[in-house]
Structure formats: structure tokens, C-alpha cells
Amino acid sequence: MNQFNPFSLKTFFINRLSQGLLTQRKKQKQTQTKNKPVTVNIIAAVSILFLTSNFVSAAEAQTESGPVPTPVKTAQSKAGSENSTLIDSKISFAEYIENIKKEALKKGYSQSLLDSSFAQVKFYQRAVKADRSQPEKVETLDTYLPKRVTEWKIKRARKMFKKHRELLIDIGEKYSVQPRFIVALWGLETNFGRIMGNYNIISALSTLAYEGRREVFFKKQLWAALTILDQGHVTIDNMKGSWAGAMGQNQFMPISFTSYAVDGDGDGKIDIWNNQADVFSSMANYLKKEGWNDELTWGRQVKLPKDFDTSLAIPKNTGSRKNWLKAWRKTEKPLAQWQALGIRRSDGTNLPRVDIKAALVFPDDANGRVYLAYNNYKTLMHWNLSYYFVSSVGLLSDRIKFPPVQ
Predict the structure, then answer these.
(1) How is the beta sheet containing 370-373 ordered, strand by strand?
(2) Domain locations along the chain
(3) CB neighbours (10 Å) of residue 236?
(4) Phi and psi (nearest 5°) for 117?
(5) The pTM is what?
(6) Which range is least confidently modeled, 74-83, 222-231, 302-311?
(7) What are phi and psi of 328, to 5 degrees?
(8) Phi then psi for 334, rounded to 5 degrees?
(9) How far apart are CA 106 and CA 218, in angstroms?
């Protein structure tokens, strides 16, 4: 049964009122007799509209940023039915949180942890809106890169590299990751720690789990967030991040935190919000665990010969990470083979004569920028499955390296 919708009721009465007035006016003209006054009908309709307006205002008052949407029933996930709760269309956000807490208790989280973690939980309407919204303007890499890798960001990246050079070199050697890629990721994720988001993570994840479209995913992230709190790495008041639940200066989702975050300075806590050693070490550990090779760069922009067979490239839209990796394995070739197929560096010179495999990537299409992507490109795509994001990381890292920071 559908839940009562005050907005639909209000629209219904407006339409009926308009139809009623038009009908009575037609009767007046047809009969040319003195019609009965319509004042009573108008007063009645306006009274009803007043009542429904008050009802809507009360609904809006339930949250700090707008009305809670009518929950939608979600199907059980085949991949994790125990992490998926069927949201009844009548359940409120408060009731959903109580169910979450009961489920968390069964998973072994303490009552005191749950009481403190959910004490100030709130519904974020803005998070739901952001999750559902789609960009209206169509970007190309040529319009995207100048906005993401600006001259001021390049200058600041080089300045931050110089400021933290000693720490970055130590971490780079420990994890076998070039420091310039750590700084590039740091700059693009949070503007070097300046923009981390101010959403309470428990509230953001609870909101998106309740919304229902990706309940299984966000509930798993919620359990990981509770684990982080339980381990004492951060307090609930300081556990802030993006509307989607990404946290800290490196924007780790909670599961990424529990999988990759490390204590960089040995103080017993992992603080990716304030501690640079923890931030940089966690980023380097992520890259290393996902196959980074510090003997390689990320890729290079190249030129195609005339009438090149574009089917040799990875398709632009593969639908999933699994399909993308399958396409990578199918299309990658040694640089010597790409050279034989007519591909050259962006300046027209021959490709490097080294025994390295690469895959061909079109972030837009064959008429846009074209890249030969090395294995580290694949690691960056694990961080964020976006050609545009990876291209921006690569470009910024190159601008940190050349010319050398003095």
C-alpha cells in the first residue's frame, strides 16, 4: 500500500477547485440565470488547502534539511541478504535506525558504542539529492582537465611536495610509491586537506542506506564506520566527511579505511583527518596493495595513425570494474607492438624501447585525447573508476615531477 502523500492531495484539491469554478461559470452562461454563489465552495476548498499545507510543513519539520522521502521497498541482494533489510513503506527514519542498532548488536557491537554513535543521527536530504543527481553539462577531457588541474593547483602541489618532502620520501621508499602520485591524489581529493566535507559519517551512511537504492553497500560501509569508532581512531564528533561517506584528507570510504589505512607515525591511532604521516602512509599503502610498481609511470598521451583500428582500445563504457579489467587483459600489448601498429608519442616521436605492456584508452573517443596506459593506470582506476579522474592524477603528478622541485 502506498504511503499517504500530502503533495499529491494538495494538487488534487487545486485541480478540483479549478474544474469546479470553470463548470459553474459555464452553467451561468448557458442558463443566463442568477447562479448560486460559489463562496461556500471556495471557502471549503481553501480550508482544505490550508490544512494540507500545514500537514506538509509538519512533514518538512522532521529533518534538518527538508522532508524525508517516502521509503521505497528494496529487493534482497543475492550477494548479501543478511545486509539487506526490506524497508516497509510505512517505516520512519527513526524506526529504521532502531532496526540498524538491533542488527549491529547482533553483529557484536556494544550497546554503549551504538548509543553514542547514533545519539545525534539525522537524515540528510541533501545527501539523497546529491546521490540521485546527474551532471547536466556534458564534459570532455579537454574541458575537464583545465578545471581540475589548474595552474594554482599545480603551484600548490609543488609547494606541498617541497614542504613534506622528507616525510614523503620516507613513505615512498617504504611502500615503493613515487611521492608525486601521493601529492597528486591528495590535491585532487581534498585540495591538500582543505575540503574534506562536514557531514557526520554515521548520519550520511544511515541516510543513504535508508534511501534504499544501494542499501547493502551503505550498510556494509556503516558497519565499517562503527568498527573504526570502536577501535578508537576517531570520535563520533570528529568523524566527518562527504555526503557519500568518504572520510579524511584522502577521502577513504570506511571499508577502504579498514582495508588500507595505516598508523604512519606509530602513535597507536590512524588519523586520516589531521595526521600527515597517517594520510600519506595510508594512500601509499592503498596503491601498493593494489599492485603499484614504482619502476613505472602511469601512462602517456599518444597519437594514432590514420585509419587506426579503434577496436584495439578498451571500450569507453564497460559497465563494471570486472568488465573493464577483462577488457584490459584482452587489449594490452607490449609497446613494441603498439609501435608497429603506428602509435607514436604525442610529439610524433617513437615510443620508448622498453619491455612494458600497455592498454590503449580513449577517455572520450578516438578524436579526443588518447593514452597508452601502464599497469599503474589500472591501480589508479581501482582508486576511482574514472578515466577523467585518472587522467587528472597523471597530469598533476607529471607537473610535480617536471621541472624538478628545488
Answers:
(1) 333-334, 357-361, 370-373, 299-303, 344-345
(2) 6-60, 81-131+197-264, 299-373
(3) 19
(4) -70, -35
(5) 0.78
(6) 74-83
(7) -60, -50
(8) -65, 155
(9) 18
pLDDT digits (tens, 9 = 90+) for 103-144: 999 999 999 999 999 999 999 999 999 999 867 677 999 999
The one-letter code for the residue type at 99 is: N
Q: Strand, coil or helix: what is 236?
A: coil
**3 state SS for 279-305:** HHHHHHHHHHHCCCCCCCCCEEEEECC
| Residue recorded with cell 594514432 | 304
Q: What is the pLDDT, as a whole number, of residue 133? A: 86
Does residue 55 carry a pLDDT above 80? no
Q: What is the DSSP letter of 309?
A: -
Contact 360, 316 (CB under 8 A): no
All 3 cell numbers of residue 94? 527513526
Half-sphere exposure of 104 (CA within 13 A, CB side): 27
Q: Grid coordinates in use for 133?
A: 543527481
Q: How far apart are CA 306 and CA 366, in angstroms?
A: 11
Question: Average per-residue pLDDT in the chain?
Answer: 84
Which cell goes with 14? Answer: 487545486
In the DSSP assignment, the letter for residue 360 is E
Strand-pairing partners, residue 360, are 372
pLDDT of residue 236: 98
Strands 299-303 and 344-345: antiparallel
Is the pLDDT at 69 greater than 50, yes or no? no
At a CB cut-off of 8 Å and minimum separation 6, what does 393 contact?
181, 184, 185, 188, 298, 380
- Multiple choice CATH, 81-131+197-264, 3.30.930.10, 2.60.40.290, 1.10.8.350, 2.60.120.10: 1.10.8.350
Q: pLDDT value at position 289? A: 98
Q: 249: how many CB neighbours lie within 10 A of its CB?
A: 26
Number of H helices, E strands in the chain: 17, 7
pLDDT of residue 20: 46
Where does the pLDDT of residue 327 fall: very low under 50, low under 70, confident under 90, or very high at 90 and above?
Answer: very high
What's the rounded Cα separation, in Å, for the pair 26 and 33?
A: 11
> Which tops the pLDDT comparison, 337 or 13?
337
